[in-house]
Amino acid sequence: MGFFDRWPLLRQLRRRADGNGLEAASARTRELAPRTKGAEVTRSICPYCAVGCGQLVHHRDGELLAIEGDPESPINAGTLCPKGAASHQLLTHERRLTRVRYRPPGATRWQDLDLDRALDMIADRVWETRARTFVATDEDGRRLNHTTAIAHLGGATLDNEENYLIRKLFTGGLGMVAVSNQARI
Ligand code: SF4
Fold it and tell me: How far is the centre of ligand 1, averaged over its atoms, from the C-alpha of 75 (Å)?
């Protein structure tokens, strides 16, 4: 850039421009680029609700940069509601919970739990509840092999394969009959 081109007014005069074009931009402005420039983009689905809006997740070197609506999604055509537009905070917000929080029965305070310990507790309780409530046959001797004491509600972002496995494990394996999904609501 020449000496006189450093000042927007001089650029405007030299080019006989009206000051609304690039001649009015500073060097700093010209260097600005979207924060997503050169980022990798991965398609995903908003995890918040059953609408299942398509999202474009911009990331670089393992860092999440931005999440936008996917223009090619037939569900949302590039738009996101305020919740979906803020979904990058699920990963980046400084106050997001990163530990399992547990409040024992009767307790007034939450405590941190190790994830493996929490999963063991859930498995123990599911198994104990099933054993206690399992009904093999009805009063006429017809086979039931089920429990109505445990239910499962899946999330909108579970895919077909995950729902297949959930159905196999919970219904076929444990005998749960109340298995549904938020995407059906
Ligand atoms: S962007 Fe909004 S409407 Fe779409 S799935 Fe997410 S929460 Fe639901």
Answer: 10
